[in-house]
Amino acid sequence: MTTVALKPATMAQALTRAMRDAMAADPAVHVMGEDVGTLGGVFRVTDGLAKEFGEDRCTDTPLAEAGILGTAVGMAMYGLRPVVEMQFDAFAYPAFEQLISHVSRMRNRTRGAMPLPITIRVPYGGGIGGVEHHSDSSEAYYMATPGLHVVTPATVADAYGLLRAAIASDDPVVFLEPKRLYWSKDSWNPDEPRTVEPIGRAVVRRSGRSATLVTYGPSVPVCLEAAEAARDEGWDLEVVDLRSLVPFDDETVSASVRRTGRAVVVHESGGFGGPGGEIAARVTERCFHHLEAPVLRVAGFDIPYPPPMLERHHLPGVDRILDAVGRLQWEAES
Amino acid sequence: MTVMEQRGAYRPSPPPAWQPRTDPAPLLPDAQPYRVLGTEAAAQADPGLLRRLYAELVRGRRYNAQATALTKQGRLAVYPSSTGQEACEVAAALALKDRDWLFPSYRDTLAAVARGLDPVQALTLLRGDWHTGYDPHEHRVAPLCTPLATQLPHAVGLAHAARLKGDDVVALALVGDGGTSEGDFHEALNFAAVWQAPVVFLVQNNGFAISVPLAKQTAAPSLAHKAVGYGMPGRLVDGNDAAAVHEVLSDAVRHARAGGGPTLVEAITYRVDAHTNADDATRYRGDAEVQAWREHDPILLLEHELTERGLLDEAGKQAARDAAETMAADLRERMNQDPVLDPMDLFDHVYAEPTPQLREQRAQLQAEIDAEGTH
């Protein structure tokens, strides 16, 4: 087994490494999906796994998402730990019946006798110039389904640590991979000791005193950029990366908002019925007496995902975030 | 110089040779449903097996009658009866070995019971005190599945996983004629054939999807013919002939066990009762049709065969009826006891560890219940 030193690694490579380490550690871990074998996935996230572990462990399936997830259910019933790749966000929809009627509730309907340790990897979100059906942010559907964990990394280290945790989890995990961060790099080095990140903990990516940006996945780097730009306006913004939408880390989010007294939720998903509404409600319920202003949302518009030449108008960017921060009733302070 | 420019010299080569990937002829079902009872094949049937099938059919019929009666007494929320289909239910259970797996739909509690499951546990879903009233691993019976055909890919995945682990396990999945129209039916059969998974699909074609007859469900020559499109054999069998269903399923299970891959079996049967106790079958079918099927009844067919061959006398029939009555009395007695429910169960199995949000909600419900108690 040769290890090519990757310094620094991309998020895609960290995800590959996570699956490789999980497969090496546990023969029950099986990777399956469309083009995941010989090709290594359309984003190359499963690159080399079929070669290293054989096609029975990393399997090119027929092109049928309900069949992929449905057979994964049966495999998990028999004690395997399937890691399913849905090729794109919008291609996961045919699997929704299996996900909602079986994957999410098998443990519950059998009173714990039949847990389903399935990881469902879904590349999601826009910003890569994808044509129709390749850029959806579908997390609200998953969040609304009891029994699923919904996890999304924003850093290379988290991509590794959270995917290892997802595969190790005895519950089904929808693992949302921000596809525009696939090629991002940070200081994570695969040759150093690699840590598993527990699911369900948010993290403060940037400390600040003026207001909290609550965000996740592809919007985390945008919020960090906005926080830097906000310094020119005299705002010192805190950025909370949720990492896990379910379970939701009320504690970390509330603690931050109580400190700053203001909050903006930022995500690509549409605002109406989107995650931001739930988050704003939770923050308001818990931090009402600490709030100086209503919790605001910066979200994608409530439109079908735009064609690539127009997507920049849709995606929450630095300016839109700063506009929202500007509307947090600062005048009341002076 | 491009190909177009050198047109005069260009000699198109024939396309690479094409031939069908599988010879379809051996996969085709017979023109008529396979039968044993009342045919020459009956002489080959094992008397012990026939007697066992008979006892199970009589017990199964009584089970269906008792469960239906329990709906009238309010002890079951609903019961989708398999009266008339007992041969399929019983043969499916008996064709499997202990280590094999059964994947039933909601109409197949009898198959689960014939496999050894406690009837009270099998009926938990329909009583409504929980969704699955048994540990599926105990008798290798997957949870009764309500969304049609969605259990079929599970059977394929389980059989595939067992084969990957080197275990000698076959999965048998039950579905109805209506279920064959679902996408999951197609995907499951396709995956099974591509993976050569040791799985058998039994379609109980009972004529109706609630009220919709087969003619509005499919234009296929038969449901068994669908197998050919996936590259697996299709078998057609008289679903009221318990010996025939048992033989066809046993062959298919043996074939799967030997590494031969999946089989699709269509059993022609009839749902004698309405869809459930809440359905009115007179709105979509006539008495004459039902009566014709009552005469082609699985118990009558087998009883006739056994009597003709001197394998069953009045005492034997009475013994079968007595055994069935004992089962029914026990079922009645236990179902007449109110189940003990713990509302906190609602929160305890959603995740391995409840989320913080569920812990809060659990505490809320507990407080509400405590407050009720003090009023």
TrEMBL record, chain A:
<dbReference type="GO" id="GO:0003863">
    <property type="term" value="F:branched-chain 2-oxo acid dehydrogenase activity"/>
</dbReference>
<dbReference type="GO" id="GO:0009083">
    <property type="term" value="P:branched-chain amino acid catabolic process"/>
</dbReference>
<dbReference type="Pfam" id="PF02780">
    <property type="entry name" value="Transketolase_C"/>
</dbReference>
<dbReference type="InterPro" id="IPR005475">
    <property type="entry name" value="Transketolase-like_Pyr-bd"/>
</dbReference>
<dbReference type="Pfam" id="PF02779">
    <property type="entry name" value="Transket_pyr"/>
</dbReference>
<dbReference type="InterPro" id="IPR029061">
    <property type="entry name" value="THDP-binding"/>
</dbReference>
<dbReference type="InterPro" id="IPR009014">
    <property type="entry name" value="Transketo_C/PFOR_II"/>
</dbReference>
<protein>
    <recommendedName>
        <fullName>3-methyl-2-oxobutanoate dehydrogenase (2-methylpropanoyl-transferring)</fullName>
        <ecNumber>1.2.4.4</ecNumber>
    </recommendedName>
</protein>
<keyword id="KW-0560">Oxidoreductase</keyword>
<feature type="domain" description="Transketolase-like pyrimidine-binding">
    <location>
        <begin position="9"/>
        <end position="184"/>
    </location>
</feature>
<dbReference type="InterPro" id="IPR033248">
    <property type="entry name" value="Transketolase_C"/>
</dbReference>
<dbReference type="GO" id="GO:0000287">
    <property type="term" value="F:magnesium ion binding"/>
</dbReference>
<dbReference type="GO" id="GO:0007584">
    <property type="term" value="P:response to nutrient"/>
</dbReference>
From TrEMBL, chain B:
<keyword id="KW-0560">Oxidoreductase</keyword>
<keyword id="KW-0670">Pyruvate</keyword>
<dbReference type="GO" id="GO:0009083">
    <property type="term" value="P:branched-chain amino acid catabolic process"/>
</dbReference>
<dbReference type="GO" id="GO:0016624">
    <property type="term" value="F:oxidoreductase activity, acting on the aldehyde or oxo group of donors, disulfide as acceptor"/>
</dbReference>
<dbReference type="InterPro" id="IPR001017">
    <property type="entry name" value="DH_E1"/>
</dbReference>
<dbReference type="InterPro" id="IPR029061">
    <property type="entry name" value="THDP-binding"/>
</dbReference>
<keyword id="KW-0786">Thiamine pyrophosphate</keyword>
<dbReference type="InterPro" id="IPR050771">
    <property type="entry name" value="Alpha-ketoacid_DH_E1_comp"/>
</dbReference>
<feature type="region of interest" description="Disordered">
    <location>
        <begin position="1"/>
        <end position="28"/>
    </location>
</feature>
<dbReference type="GO" id="GO:0000287">
    <property type="term" value="F:magnesium ion binding"/>
</dbReference>
<dbReference type="InterPro" id="IPR017596">
    <property type="entry name" value="PdhA/BkdA"/>
</dbReference>
<feature type="domain" description="Dehydrogenase E1 component">
    <location>
        <begin position="65"/>
        <end position="342"/>
    </location>
</feature>
<protein>
    <submittedName>
        <fullName>Pyruvate dehydrogenase (Acetyl-transferring) E1 component subunit alpha</fullName>
    </submittedName>
</protein>
<dbReference type="Pfam" id="PF00676">
    <property type="entry name" value="E1_dh"/>
</dbReference>
